[in-house]
Amino acid sequence: MKETEPIKVMTEGHNMKSYAKACENFDWRDMEKAFSWYETGKVNAAYEAIDRHVDSGKGDKTALLYSDPKREERYSFREMKEQSDRFGNVLKKLGIQKGDRVFIFMPRTPELYFSFLGILKVGAIAGPLFEAFMEAAIRDRLEDSEAVALVTTPQLLSRVPHKELPALKHIILVGEGELDEGFYQLEEGFCSFRKEMAEASTELEMEWVDREDGMLIHYTSGSTGKPKGVFHVHNAMLQHYQTGKWVLDLKEDDIYWCTADPGWVTGTSYGIFAPWLNGVTNVIRGGRFSPEDWYGTLEKNGVTVWYSAPTAFRMLMGAGADVVKQFDLSKLRHLLSVGEPLNPEVVRWGLETYGKRIHDNWWMTETGGILISNYPAMEVKPGSMGKPFPGVKAAIIDDQGNELPPMRMGNLAIRTPWPSMMRKIWKNEAKYSEYFRIPGWYISGDSAYRDEDGYFWFQGRIDDVINTSGERVGPFEVESKLVEHPAIAEAGVIGKPDPVRGEIIKAFISLRKGHEPSDELKEQIRVFVKEGLAAHAAPREIEFKDKLPKTRSGKIMRRVLKAWELDLPTGDLSTMED
Ligand code: WTA
């Protein structure tokens, strides 16, 4: 990316007055004082996010401003406490204990948030699943985590192969049709959310846990193998809280909207914890993306701080400035973006259109919280991810672990540890240790460089992980699904650059004998992946090949596919079979 003129400081009054000052004498232990456990010694992130505000007299303040095309609801911190207490009691009645995995597979509605908080309150580990997942994706995750309970809707139930999941004992049905007799008469282990909640007490005996006890698992993709269960602990709240203050710049009166779904890490760290740990009103919008809907959400709720993603900003840019003019966005104070590279032209467009800078920041499912960012009180360099969060050391290192000087490209690495760092990959020690193969460092898998002023610039992934519309997709998962199709002999999947989505998924496919390439077959294959795995994992482009490039040990060489696609040199082919 080209370097361009930095955009200077535009407004005053930020929580972080000066980046340099914030870095001086920074100590995470100072942040602990914000939490009640600093004095009580009793830890639970859900308590700190919700109940603490009730106990300190802010119970009537609005915590959740929910809307979708059918519902519009508002819940105070007190109501959030009551609802999550109720749900905790529902779980207790089912015998759910500390450390049990309880998964949530449902669209964004208030019940999702009550459930999530209730799970934490009983000391169980929450596993939110993106609602677009299909059966194979759901099976992999529930099987690996050995989830004992699942909160889902009657509509999504057909994607849950519950009879094949021996660990799964309870299914809590929520939403339209949940009271239908059928579920409960036929099967043991089903219960109705509404019915159980109505009977449960609004006073829960909180499970106090240790800071290092499990809180959350997010499954994410690597370039090989099945999705990995990234395991986070209650201690992560330190980072959620402080990045909420300094990066999101959250203040008492803010109306905050994070557009991410809790099935992805941004939707929990910054869609649940950061705003509520800071006692801020959180906007949740259900339903689908459209420019009118999103601008309408900003206007109607008077959103002041808005956290979204490059693909969304690019789509809004595509929709044009005329749409923007129909809405009153004057309350907007602070804009942020994460998940994929944010093009400098989008930042400049944002400045022209909204009159505000979009602050790019960088982190990963594994890091649990923001590690590099552009801060409100700092010059923004369009195209750069910004500077390390105070107390965090980021560096560019080579494969031996040597730190590289400015302007040299290498592995983006972070000095271990930091409060929200993942504590394990669920049941996969080997995968976990790959991240820490160089002593003292977490290796992100991204390549980047640092400029003379200390700003970091993203260059790409080192592995084959695809980032499409900000969603991380593992090529192996898609390839595995593809070869289940009866016409497909072999498949190789790559990310192909795309102006709006960042990357799209492209599949190279060789067919079994007796099958001929055709557009109908392409469409059939797309639907096959869409219905088997997830819509966002389906290849937008398919190319048939007689043969795919493979190593002598039979591994598809995605690097060669990518070089073909981009018209680049294929590099060293010595390991390729003839
Ligand atoms: C990419 C999302 C460029 C990166 C929070 C990283 C980014 C992966 C940025 C993590 C950014 C994230 N600029 N690329 N500002 N932020 N990425 O786990 O490749 O879904 O490794 O976490 O997204 O994606 P994940």
UniProtKB/TrEMBL annotation:
GO terms for MF: acetate-CoA ligase activity
Gene3D superfamilies: 3.30.300.30, N-terminal domain of ligase-like
InterPro entries: AMP-bd_C (IPR025110), AMP-bd_C_sf (IPR045851), AMP-binding_CS (IPR020845), AMP-dep_synth/lig_dom (IPR000873), ANL_N_sf (IPR042099)
Source species, domain of life: Bacteria
Domain AMP-binding enzyme C-terminal: 477-555
EC number(s) recorded for this UniProt protein: 6.2.1.1
Annotated PROSITE patterns: AMP_BINDING (PS00455)
Domain AMP-dependent synthetase/ligase stretches: 57-425
Enzyme class of the recorded protein, top EC level: ligase
Keywords assigned: Acetylation, ATP-binding, Ligase, Nucleotide-binding
NCBIfam families in the record: PRK04319.1 (NF003313)
Protein name (database record): acetate--CoA ligase
